[in-house]
Amino acid sequence: MIDIHCHIIHGVDDGPSNIAESLKMIREAERLGISQIMATPHYQECIFGLERVEENYQELLFRAQDYDVTINLGFEVFADPNNHSYFKYRKKLSLNKSGVILLEFPFNTTPLKCVDMVRKYRAQKITPVIAHLERNRSFINRFDIFVTFIKAGCYIQLDAASIAGVYGLKIKEFSRRLIQMKLADMISSNAHCAKDYLDWYSEAYKNVSNWVGKEEAGILFHNNAKQLLDGRNSDELANRNILVWERMV
Known about the structure:
The structure is a single chain. The chain is of the alpha/beta class. It has twelve helices and nine strands. The strands form two sheets. It has a six-stranded parallel β-sheet with strand order 3-5-6-7-8-9. Helix 1 (19-32) links the parallel strand 1 (2-6) and strand 2. The longest helix is centred in the C-terminal third of the chain and has 19 residues, at 194-212. The radius of gyration is 17 Å and the shape is globular. It starts with a strand and ends with a helix. The mean pLDDT is 87.
């Protein structure tokens, strides 16, 4: 499995406070069968420094050499449609410098202005992945807003905790709906500690396997992420959700 959203770098955000906790996360991920982790610390300009992230990431790589898990660097970028510096630093902020960028939207506001941001990314050959979109109230209450983002050509990443029911039945059912409609692309841990993997990740995999079968679960937990990070057929994958929605309406 490939986990494209994980706060595993110590001492840089609300993830682990020390290297020992980071290593516990890697051990738990390896036990669950995760072969690749994208370390995605929060990025919001003037709040989290890139220099410290790089230093702690290199320390983590050195200490994690004995584990059979590849750890790459990316960021969870707070989506600010008024900040154009993201375009300037797009390579540095993307997942393993792949041109794929993980965006976080505010949870309690309607992020319609972010649609234009997504379109601009696509126009500049940047592939936007929207993190834990299922937890945003606007999308839960108004499905037409969700569809607007699909048509803009972004990818949808769901949190394992949402699928496991950590945030309540409403978010769990919305996640199930998106998965069964084939409108979600990837499921990630968004883990901040080893317990997050232990309590949520395997439970999410079981739920998804029960909802849509193990083959589709494999696509959501591995195949789509690999395809995206490898840079293969990214436009085709983005268009899949658009075509699915158009067939339904």
